[in-house]
Amino acid sequence: IAVYSFPDRTGQRKPNDRFSQLSTAVTQGPETWVINALKAVGGDNPWFIVVERQGLDAIIKERQLIRSTRELYDGESDVKNQLKPLKFAGLIVEGGIVGYDTNITSGGAGARYFGIGASEQYRTDQVTVSIRLVAVQTGEIIISTSATKTIASYSSGGDVFRFLDMSTKALEIETGVATNEPVNYAIRTTIEHAIFNMIHEGIEKDLWKFKIEE
Description:
Largest sheet: 4 strands, antiparallel
Order of helices and strands: HHEEEEH
Number of helices: 3
Strand content: 35-45%
Helix content: 10-25%
Strand order of the largest sheet: 1-2-3-4
C-alpha cells in the first residue's frame, strides 16, 4: 500500500481574535500519521506493507548511483550484486485534512463581588479527515470514509481589584490557567479513526477478513 500525499486542504490559519497569522492551523505533514497508522495495524504482524513514495526520487537516484558504481567496479555480469526490484503498490491511500472549523461552541461564566472575581471560558474546534482507498490496477475508489475530532480549549482565572485609598493607588491581582488540546494529537487520532473505519468498511464489502485470537 502506498501514500503519496495527504495534504492540508483547509487553507486555515491559526485562529486569533486580534490579528491574522501566517502559521497554518494544522500540520503540513499529516501523511506521517497515515503511514504510522497503516504500519501499526496488526501489531507485530502488520497487515499492510507500506512502500516509500514521499522520497521516491531520492531512492531512484541512490539506486542509479549503486548500479553505476557496481557496473564500473564489478562488471555487469555480476548477478549477486544486482539490485532487487522495487515493490509496487496494489492500493493507494489518498485524501487529506478537509475541514478545520473554529469556535464550534464557546461560552463561559464569571462573577465579581466587591472587586473580587472569577471566570471560566471554553471553546471547541473541529477537524475533519477524509480517506480514499484506490485500486491501482483499475483506478476504482473501493473505499471512501471520513472521521471528525473535536478539539477542546478551556481557561479559568481570577482577579482581585482594590483601591487602597481615594488617590491613585490601587491593588490589582490576576491569575489564570488555560488548557488547549494539541492540534497534532487531534489530527493523529482522527486519521487513526479514519483508518479504523476503512478497515471495517473493507470487511463489510468482503475485501478482507481478520480473526481475533483469544
